[in-house]
Amino acid sequence: QVQLVESGGGLVQAGGSLRLSCAASGNIFIINTMGWYRQAPGKQRELVATITRGGSTNYADSVKGRFTISRHDAKNTVYLQMNSLKPEDTAVYYCNAEAPLDAMEYWGKGTLITVSS
User: Fold this and answer.
1) Residue range 49-70: average pLDDT?
2) CB of 105 within 8 A of CB of 14?
3) CA pair distance 7, 44, nearest whole angstrom
4) Residues near 75 by beta carbon (within 8 Å), at least 6 away in sequence
5) Partners of residue 104 on adjacent β-strands
6) Cα Rg, the chain, nearest whole Å
7) Which residues make Cβ contacts (< 8 Å) with residue 62, sequence separation at least 6?
8) Residue 103: predicted pLDDT
9) Is residue 102 helix, strand or coil?
């Protein structure tokens, strides 16, 4: 089992920055890819960014050039640095961890980000 706890959400004005953190605990050695997803009101959950254990990253087109995902394996933590935030970035952001050998996927409870115009 893997537990994920997000932190760093809140209210920010458009153009501002926030950094999200996701701390993993439990059987962390089974984790390969970690990532961030978001779900805006009335919309489906969507991918924001992912990062593999080897450091390969993938971003949604809507956040490329503004968001940066990184991971600190010694701290079992993945980060999402969000710059130039827009009102359309308002959503609940969820941390995700994939454990392919166990064919399992884990989710945090989410953290709300509200970007005011």
Assistant:
1) 97
2) no
3) 22
4) 23
5) 99
6) 14
7) 88
8) 87
9) helix
Average pLDDT over residues 101-113: 93
Q: Is 90 exceeded by the pLDDT of residue 73?
A: no
Rounded to whole angstroms, the Cα distance separating 6 from 20 reads: 7
Mean pLDDT taken over the chain: 95
What is the length of the chain? 117
Buried b (16+ CB within 10 A) or exposed e, 81-114: ebeebeeebbbbbbbbbbbeeeeeebebebbebe
Decide if 94 contacts 45 (C-beta within 8 A).
yes
β-strands 2-7, 57-59 pairing: unpaired
How is 42-87 classified by DSSP, letter by letter?
A: TS--EEEEEE-TT--EEE-TTTTTTEEEEEEGGGTEEEEEE-S--G
Q: What is the mean pLDDT of residues 14-36?
A: 95
Taking residues 28-42, report their average pLDDT.
Answer: 94
pLDDT at 102 over 90: no
